[in-house]
Amino acid sequence: MNKYFTGLTSGDVWGGLAASAVVLPQAMAFGVALLTPNGFDASQGAIAGLLGAAIVCTVSGFFGGTRGLISAPTGPTLVLLGGALAALSQADVSGGALLINLAMVIMCTGLFQIIIGLSGGGKLIKYIPYPVISGFLTGSAILMILSQMDPLSGKGLDASWESWRWLPFATAALTVISTYMGPKYIKKLPGTIAGLLVGCLFFHIMSSFNHADLPAQWLIGELPRIDSVSLELPTNILNDLRWPIIIPAALALAILSSLDTLLTAVIADVSTGLRHNANLEMVGQGIGQILTSISGGMAAAGTTGATVVAVKSGGRRWAGVFAGLTFFILILAARDAGSLLPISVLAGIILSVSLHMFDLDIIAWLKRPKSRQDAIIAIMVTTVTVAYDLMMAVGLGVLIAIILFIRTQIQAPVVHLRSTGEQIRSVRSRSVKERELLEKNGARIILYELRGNLFFATADTLLQELSNDLNGPNYIILHLRRVLQVDLTAIKFLHQIGSRVQKNGGRLIFCNVHKEIGVGEQLQETIKKMSSSNVELQVLTFNGKDEALEYAENMLLENLDVTPTKFYDHIPLEDNDLCLSMNDAARNNLNTVLEKRILETKEKLFSAGEHGDQLYLVLSGEIDIQLPTTQHHHKRLATCQPGSFFGELALLNPGPRVASAVATHRTELLILSRTALDELCKNYPDTAIQLLMTLAKIQVEHLRWSTAELQHLSEW
Questions:
Q1: Which residues pair with residue 417 across a beta bridge?
Q2: What is the DSSP-derived secondary structure letter of residue 230?
Q3: pLDDT tens column, 184-239
Q4: Distance (Å, rounded) from C-alpha 446 to C-alpha 468?
Q5: Comparing C-alpha atoms, which of 251, 164, 169 is closest to residue 213?
Q6: What is the C-alpha R_g of the chain?
Q7: Domain harbouring 703, CATH code
Q8: Which residues of 5-18 are buried (b: 16+ CB within 10 A; e: fewer)?
Q9: Which of 26, 163, 259, 709 is 20 to 30 A away from residue 327, measured at CA?
Q10: Is residue 108 part of a domain?
Q11: Which of 341, 369, 404 is the C-terminal boundary of a domain?
Q12: How does pLDDT run across 255-281, given as a tens digit for each residue?
């Protein structure tokens, strides 16, 4: 026992018992409401509802996709199965063939739910908009109320009971009132049990004043034996199955049952503090539906009221299994109880459930302009549910969900952030002349950080947002890290964007392209293959934003007739950024305290964490300043080219290095140590002052630029 019921607690037992007490009258009521309008005995409907609750609850509980979940026939399943039976009846299906077709609807429902679970669709169903769900439930509630008018009308009575036509309606009304009032006086008494007890007591007390035998249509009757309700599937009936009715009904029921179950699972999660497995729950529910169909039971789904009762009573992992076993015991041991159970009491329970399903929030939505559209959607789904059928309403709901998704995607901004070269730069150090040109012409470099999905509904929006920047010799960088997917239509629009900017003397550049967007990391190749244009489109893709910015800066400088500094250039001391504002005497004085060092390619100058007190001037070659992020990865903070310098913070305030420095090419350096600086201050104080003033000025420029960058980043 312990081997198979790991984690079993007494709370599971009590939770299962409490939940079964809540579900019992509801399951019988829904079964009766489903089958009696089609000419079947009320007792057969009651046992079908109980079997559905027992089997699906047990199987779902065994799989354990949701802790504490209780499954049973629900309002939406009743309405949809009722619609399927009505459609089958109109197709001249009756008697045993009607039950066989109904069982096949439930079996296919189970198969669809298993497919939903195995394919990971359990997560997708939860994205159906709430106004659609609200419309489903409200429409189902109206249909459930209408379905109980005939059983409560008192038609078909003999003369001895003709004056008692009011009794079924009065019993149902008192049952509804008791389900609301009972828990207020006895808090631990479930509302359905209160309604069942009070309704039965009232019915039998009042009927005792008439000594005639009770009308058979007013009582459930003795429940059939459990082995007498299993379905046999004769070959001649299987060949006559109405698949055009069965398949759509099963698909709609699978969606509704899954949605009902997953909403209940969310409520269970809130109470237990755990997290359900949607896909496992769908598989368990699907297998339960298949077994139910074979046994002649009614389809079931997660039921909120019983689940809350089970969880509050301590039920967790095995509560559903114990609730299902309780149903089986009741089916086997309490067959005679049906002879005393009035149909009007079960009708009252259905009416009570229906009233709970009404979503009055729709009225509040109508009053507010911002939510009026949601109210209209809910009313539309409700109208279709009542005027036509629930299957059509499900189709309409799914269609509305798709339309709302596309509408949301269209309205969502495609551009996450727009930046220009005036606001952002690459980490490559630049000479004074290069910096001045980039600051003056930085508006020609435009970085667009995109987000969301680039597909047929948003690609045109992107083109419109970029339109003004495509009409000049600009360098357009599209950052795709936050883009989830790119479809063929978007590829065509990207080709159009590239063609326009190239025609005007600019260039389209991509960066941060990842495989998940569905076009491959070499996006430029995909764009070329997807177009039959004879124009040779020049498009480049870079791994990161910084590489793309650096390329755009180099292209812009060349376009301005300035050759960017290369690693093989040799920039003498007098042209280094640190010495530009110094006179010749000061530079000569500085040169007397500098040391020279040569680094080979990939040679490390220093590592993060090492003590440092030196400033470095780059004469030739190239140094990458790298911030370690993991054991084997780093982020490039700066690239120091000929004519630049680095390490000024360590010179001014010696201490641990925060980053590493690695030569990417053979590099020639001049080194100014803190000892050399002290010597300079002692022997050439004027030169030391000029040096410190230059360092202070450059640090102020860096701080101003950092402040501007932070302000720009705050726009995210």
A1: 449
A2: P
A3: 888 777 787 788 889 889 988 998 888 788 887 787 776 666 655 555 555 566 66
A4: 11
A5: 164
A6: 38
A7: 2.60.120.10
A8: eeebeebbbbbbbb
A9: 259
A10: yes
A11: 404
A12: 888 888 887 887 788 777 788 888 899
